[in-house]
Amino acid sequence: MTIYISTLQCHDQPGIVLATTTAIVALGGNILENDQFTDPVTDHFVMRTRFSASVDDIERVQGLLFEHLERFEPTLRVRRESDRRRALVMVSKYDHCLAELLYRHEQGDLPLDIPVIISNHPDLAPVAATHRIPFVHVPVSAATKDVAESMLRALVDEHRIDVVVLARYMQVLSPAFCRDFPGRVVNIHHSFLPGFKGSRPYHQAYNRGVKLIGATAHFVTPELDEGPIIDQDVVRVSHARTADDFVALGRDVERTVLARAMTLIAEDRVALVGQRTVVFTQ
């Protein structure tokens, strides 16, 4: 038996689940997981189905599902579970998020392929070498930003990349790149109230006596740090903590949130619906 994952979005109406299950039965299949959600405001329907089938032919499976669902005009995607998503990871000098992704990947806890790592600094090349992943140093300056982004596009094409992960990559991607890859670029960002902009945000937070340190993993859009949210978390702090404690706690929550978000994406559990996400957790 071959295991498949299908994701579907369309306007909600009667018969969608019936049509899906009928197609799966016709494939000699069995549903292993099914999650669905209807947005009460837009009446938009989202469904994720993980199923086994006796047919090991992705085109036939896709074709039969679409044949049964065509009248609903869905956005439908199907993949073999064994055909893993491919992620390009971008970093600068901070290694905590990259190290967490690579550790989980190596342990089999992150079902993604990571064929290449890109950085605007050479510092983390030894980390990539330890995990036997190609490391590409692409320096970025105001004068070379367009060239660097052209190289990024070429690497995305060359390695058949599904998602670009900004694992504390300290450069802003152009609005054109963000528009060309909607729902395919993920960033991790600290989360504070109030929002501290500029350098040393954790030190700014310490000076203001914040009581919560948080992080947000989100899709990247042309509007800086305002993309649809995938995952978030917080840790409580007290007045007894130092600024260095804030930085250390921030690293922990950032790497955990990013790794969790990438696991959700790897398992097709995140659906992008306008400015929001539907996330089917396990």
CATH superfamily membership of the largest domain, which one? Formyl transferase, N-terminal domain
Order of helices and strands: EHEEHEEHEHEHEHEHEEHEE
Rg is 21 Å
Report the sheet with the most strands, covering strand number, pairing sense and barrel closure: 7 strands, mixed
Global outline: globular
Low-confidence stretches: none
Distance between the termini: 22 Å
The percent range for strand residues is 25-35%
Task: Give the number of helices.
Answer: 8
- Report the helical percentage: 25-40%
Summing up helix and strand content along with how strands pair, one would put the structural category as alpha/beta
In order across it, which strands form the biggest sheet? 7-6-5-8-9-10-11
The CATH class of the largest domain turns out to be: Alpha Beta
Task: Give an account of the 3D structure.
- This protein starts with a strand and ends with a strand.
- It has 282 residues and is of the alpha/beta class.
- Helix 1 (16-26) packs antiparallel against helix 2 and helix 3 packs across helix 8 (243-266).
- The chain has eight helices and 13 strands.
- The chain has a seven-stranded mixed beta sheet with strand order 7-6-5-8-9-10-11, sandwiched between helices.
- It folds into two domains: 2-80, ACT domain (Alpha-Beta Plaits, 2-Layer Sandwich); 85-279, Rossmann fold.
